[in-house]
Amino acid sequence: MFKMMKGLFLVAAIVGLGACSGLKLQEAEMTAPGGGAFKEALHKYYIERSSAEFAEGDYQDSDYFASKAITASGETEVLPQEVGDRQI
């Protein structure tokens, strides 16, 4: 009985943690792009990319691109991602 409860708890914890991923897209969609035409286009692109990744079920990448969109809507300069940062 204890092993079954332990297993159910583990499954619930994994599902709960997985549900936290992909939530940055909603936050990014509520940010207003600003800072000129380039940053507005950058914000739009990152929202589109985040939405596409979310639709594919890749919530980690969706959150990554949503974070970039949020950064693009602020004063901080958005730098390109290093090739070595991606696992290709």
Taken in chain order, the helices and strands follow as HHHH
* Total number of helices: 4
Low-confidence runs: none
Question: What profile does the largest beta sheet have?
Answer: none
Rg over C-alpha atoms, rounded to the nearest angstrom:
17 Å
* Helix share bin: 55-70%
- Nearest-integer average pLDDT: 81
Helix/strand/pairing class, anyone?
Answer: mainly alpha
What do you see in this structure?
This protein is mostly helical. It has helices at residues 2-19, 24-29, 37-55, 59-72. Helix 3 (37-55) packs antiparallel against helix 4 (59-72).
Summarize this structure briefly.
With 88 residues, the protein is mainly alpha-helical. The protein has helices at residues 2-19, 24-29, 37-55, 59-72. The protein is built from 4 helices and no strands.
Keywords:
globular; mainly alpha; 0% strand; 88 residues; 65% helix
Topology of this protein?
Layout: H1 2-19, H2 24-29, H3 37-55, H4 59-72
